[in-house]
Amino acid sequence: QVQLVESGGGLVQAGGSLRLSCVASIRTNNNYGVAYGVAWFRRAPGKEREFVAAISRSGSRDYYADVLKGRLTISRDKAKNTVYLDMNSLKPEDTAVYYCAADLYRDYGVDPRGWNYWGQGTQVTVST
Q1: Contact of 22 with 100, CB cutoff 8 Å
Q2: Phi then psi for 2, rounded to 5 degrees?
Q3: Are 71 and 88 in contact (CB under 8 A)?
């Protein structure tokens, strides 16, 4: 079982930057390390949850939504069980609740239904 906690959201002016963090707590039945893919999604007011970025179980591959590519960097620190999402040049339309999701058998997927574990979300608000 994987539990996820996001942090790092807040209020930022347009053009600014934020770093979101997703810390995973993992329960396993053995002492072996567990690999899991992680994705970030967001839900803006009145809109469906949409894919933002993902990083593979190995950490060697990353994926981004086309409309956001170039402004985001996803990375992971395996020792800390933490995945980061660095967002730059933020726009008011980036305002949303950002969620991280994890899955033990998935590296990538834009459909939120494909991810088994979810955090509670962190609010990002970008002002003009």
Answers
A1: yes
A2: -125, 130
A3: yes
The CA distance from 78 to 23, in Å, is: 10
pLDDT tens across 48-107, in order? 999 999 999 999 999 999 989 899 999 999 889 999 999 999 999 999 999 999 998 999
Q: Rounded CA gap, 49 and 70, in Å?
A: 21
Beta bridge partners of 12: 126
Q: Which token pair is 35?
A: 């690999």
d(CA 28, CA 89): 39
Residues 46, 15: Cα–Cα separation, whole Å: 23
CB 6 within 8 A of CB 122: yes
Beta bridge partners of 51: 41
Burial class (CB in 10 A: 0-12, 13-18, 19+), 70: exposed
User: Which residues lie below 8 Å from residue 117, measured CB to CB, with a gap of 6+?
Assistant: 1, 2, 3, 4, 101, 102, 103
Q: What are phi and psi of 86, to 5 degrees?
A: -95, 125
